[in-house]
Amino acid sequence: MQPGTVLDISALGVEVHVRKTAAQTGGKLVEFDVVGEPRGLIAAAHVHTTQTERHEVLEGAMRLTLSRATRVLRAGEAMAVPPGVAHRQRGAGAGPGRVRVQLRPAGRTEAFLERLAELSAAGAYNPLGVTAPPRGRRASA
User: Which of 17, 70, 75, 133 could lock 33 by a disulfide, CB 3.0 to 4.6 Å apart?
Assistant: First the structure.
């Protein structure tokens, strides 16, 4: 992955525009812009056990919920989520937004984002933005 790479994750309502890679920063961080209106898997509550995740709203507005506290960030505002804190982020404006995300350390974030794009291209998400369960095999007679 290189700076300038754009990952189409349209099944989850977004594109990811890569700005800084783990290779560039010696693994210290990865930085990308999320453009669109996130839904499904990427808008669900989650925890990064070893990473700090910083969100800076560039356009639109974002609702960031940490544990049970919710804050609406508008263009020019930023907030960091410490490791181990459950959080979720959703759009809060009247249309698509642009949020710069930085994760420290980079970890395997790039591989995760690439996998989300692969699943989106393969049509693996259901209308709710969750991966569909694998189809079962038929028993042979």
Answer: 17
